[in-house]
Amino acid sequence: EKGGYDHFMLKEIFEQPQTIYDSLRGRLDAKKGTLTMGGIREYADVLSNANRIVIVACGTSWHAGLVAEYIIEELCRIPVEVEYASEFRYRNPVIGEGDVIIAVSQSGETADTLVAIESAKEKGAIILGICNVVGSSIARASQAGAYTHAGPEIGVASTKAFTAQLAVLTLTALKIAAEKGSISEQRFQHLLDELEDVSDKVATALELNDQIKEIADKYKDARDFLFLGRGYNFPVALEGALKLKEISYIHAEGYPAAEMKHGPIALVDENLPVVFVATKDTYYEKVVSNIQEIKARKGKVIAIITEGDETIPAMADDVIIVPEADELVAPMISVIPLQLLAYHVGVLKGYDVDKPRNLAKSVTVE
Ligand code: M6R
Q1: Which of 19, 148, 254, 345 sits CB 3.0–4.6 Å from 216 for a disulfide?
Q2: Would you say 104 and 57 are in contact if contact means Cβ atoms under 8 Å apart?
Q3: If you average pLDDT over residues 195-217, what whole number do you get?
Q4: Active site (annotated) includes residue 280
């Protein structure tokens, strides 16, 4: 049932070229330049006229929501907030008609997320559910939605569900932008083409598995890790830190790279591995300066970079080279090495990565 892999987590990481393809299949036709989303068709108008969009989720799904915030604001010019479902529910949020809530959940059963959307619905908001499990409670409580089609995710650490969420949230943003007329035809077509190429690029990133295992071995005894990224890669840094914590029990924190100098930089010394998600994008030059700040304090830098980059390899202790992609779709590719890093560190430390201690696959208590 593990398909020849030692663990479900590794199997699911390696399934991603297929699961990303499955999440796009039947929706995206790059050749024709079309995008079909059956589950939101009736609400396309409501979505494109939304006053604001609030994304509610927990854990990894919340990280997918953060990427979506950047994408939706960029393409649709609608204000977006991303909320931890548990906080949103309890602080009596200002919600009303004209607000759209996007609930993101792999299981569709997360109690905090479910309760949050039920109370928002009572206040007149429209709920769009992005779930993986078909027929789940959150899917049923939503008026509109799209399934991620990643197939059953068994590993407690979410991997393939995350990239499928990113794929579907990007499609949703493109659909709203097209409806609203806030995106040019050329950019729309370009992003459809980029989305279509993601599966192959993820397959290329998976070829780094052996190299990442070596890097994992080199740093597995570290007490703490820092994960840094900016822009679309900032949530990827958060996700890398969460994966490592869950699977290897090493303390890890994710930060926006520039925020580091406002405090966390005090932690940097020669024993601290700092993982930079530093692919070529709008923020690249700034991230290079942030890497210099870490090196000046003797931190160990492991950088996820784009092929062809000649600057960062001269500065970093280890580089992991991924294929080039438009910055909006890059997170689906740059997260792959971080999933593999967490996996290998956990396995090398002798832990049961499919069932990390204290965690359940879905958290059905508030
Ligand atoms: O099923 P959901 O997507 O609603 O679950 C949300 C979180 O509980 C989940 O992402 C959790 O953080 C995972 N263990 C992350 O790997």
Answers
A1: 345
A2: yes
A3: 98
A4: no
